[in-house]
Structures
1.
Amino acid sequence: MKHFLSFQDVPDLSQLITSGIVAKRNPFGDQEMGKNKTIGLLFFNSSLRTRISTQKAAQNLGLNVIVMNVGQDGWGLEMEEGVIMNGDKAEHVKEAAAVIGSYCDIIGIRSFASLSDREKDYQEIVFQQFKKYAGVPIINLESATRHPLQSLADCITIEEFKLKERPKVVLTWLPHFKPLPQAVANSFCEWMNHAEVELVVTHPKGYDLSPDFVGKGQVIYDQDKALEGADFVYGKNWSSYEHYGQVLSSDPSWMITNDKMSLTDNGKFMHCLPLRRNMKVADEVLDGPHSLVIEQAANREWAAQAALREILLGMK
Ligand SMILES: NCCC[C@H](NC(=O)CCC(=O)O)C(=O)O
Ligand SMILES: NC(=O)OP(=O)(O)O
């Protein structure tokens, strides 16, 4: 694998899931693989799980790790070409990416959506520019439109906990007062479209995700109906794609409670975290026997290890 930016980069999903499960059983089996190589992890936005799990996975593979909060500590980076740099950005990505690429063999980047300009966000300019100018493999640590390491961890978690050959997986919108990106939901749909599952997506009207991501997922606007018989309930808030970046509703009746979970087929609850308790999901669900959120977050380490292993194999 040359880069890990989206599902398109994955040569074989089931092999990648298996690689994650193998890493979980034997974390240090490939410790020689990353020896004398360095990964740089660049964060333009906050992170708990991605930062620690990717660092840990890289160390399990013997890689040296450099983490930088570029959003806080670095020079403001200009991403556009040919502009007069007389604003607040002191450095151009052309130099910054090339310089970081000279220090690091792999670069991981987190850069969220602006939620103000849909066309620009969906062009993924930060990732395209680093890919163009760094000269080394680029790993997506959550971009404007996708979060593939999360989606891979979700696939591993579903594989571990599924009780049916083809489980019903329901992605449900959850209420939140802040506008959040579509990245996690988009990416989850993208990966579920290639997994052995029945995908249903439910949200209030006006929250339709880009059809490019929903794919063959069935959209049902009635949450109760969508949840019927679900094996996995995957919660996430996102802001409107159509009315880009807007919060159109924070209807509390969309919060996941035990009553909602009782509509499922003894379903498990999943969420990428962080999440706001009793806004999006009730305590009773998170603290109850059906929540998988901790197992899911723990699997981020093995997802990152599987992806990094594939990148290292591609560098040989
Ligand atoms: N990396 C996981 C999700 C990150 C981000 N959540 C957030 O920004 C939550 C912020 C808050 O609840 O204030 C998102 O939805 O894409
Ligand atoms: N799920 C996830 O990506 O968490 P962080 O934002 O804490 O990395």
2.
Amino acid sequence: MSGIKTLGQFIIEKQADFSYAKGELSRLLRDIGIAAKIVNREVNKAGLVDILGDAGTVNIQGEGQKKLDIFANTQFISALTSGGECCIVATEEEDEFVPIDSPVSKNAKYIVCIDPLDGSSNIDVNVAVGTIFSIYRRKSTDGMATIADVLQKGTEQVAAGYVIYGSSTMLVYTTGKGVNGFTLDPSIGEFCLSHPDLKMPEDGSIYSINEGNYVHFPKGVKKYIKYAQVHDAATNRPYTSRYIGSMVADIHRNLIKGGIYIYPTTASSPNGKLRLLYECNPMAFIVEQAGGFASDGFKRILEIEPVELHQRSSIFIGSKKMVRMAEQMMTEFALEAGAINM
Ligand SMILES: O=P(O)(O)OC[C@H]1O[C@](O)(COP(=O)(O)O)[C@@H](O)[C@@H]1O
Ligand SMILES: [Mg+2]
Ligand SMILES: [Mg+2]
């Protein structure tokens, strides 16, 4: 067992990077790790326990909730409540933000925005799903934290991460000093450092987009797809199309191999589909920390000012050269249409 480094050991070790650190963020990351293990246990035996299928309820976004969405939501809120470091949870599965009012969290100063179960459409078919989280420090100093403490730009994140429940279960996170990946070793029940200092290739040859929506895509996206499909060996084209339908899994693959994930505006999602606070911002922080880039086609995701809890955004995220190319094509058509001025 020599040589392994658990998530807990790594977090404590890295705490030294922050002179003011008192261990609160470390304990918060520990709490998220604990809930992820409980969710992983259910995901791994999903067909054997009553956790597959619809919960019969609908969230504020009009999406049918899966039993596993609800289970994961409950596990993360309960771990964050008993951990004592979190004062508000903003989650995809609750209409409003959830104030954590427990005796242990009176002085809690962290806000957690979370997508408890990402890739819900893949739950029942045994395809990789995930959890995405983003952590902020509250801005207000006294009394109960408010929505203003939640609606912070992505640049204000102090940490972000995701868990992927795939052929193995991994937790990948950043505190703004690089990105590290940990694989769950079921034999000891610990996340162990397996992917230190992850770097996203600057360029790649994989594109991830739901082409079923093609006719409704902006012209810039249509042009990018055509560009990806051209035969040109010198630029690694045609690119390979890969789309799992779980944002975490598609971006995790591209983080390791290079690639771009695009979820643009469509007819059914005129503002994009993915949610800024608990999907776009955390994935953008991680990808940028690994050397990639993320934008809404025009503006850096992390600079977008949030105004609503479940606000959506279009997203172009991945290898820097690929995202810049896609942005260029979006800008070209927007200029042509007079939608933007340079
Ligand atoms: O089925 P579509 O429209 O391609 O959307 C798939 C996308 O929606 C999501 O499932 C949205 O996330 P949730 O499952 O957490 O609601 C992403 O994970 C995925 O990339
Ligand atoms: Mg999601
Ligand atoms: Mg979800």
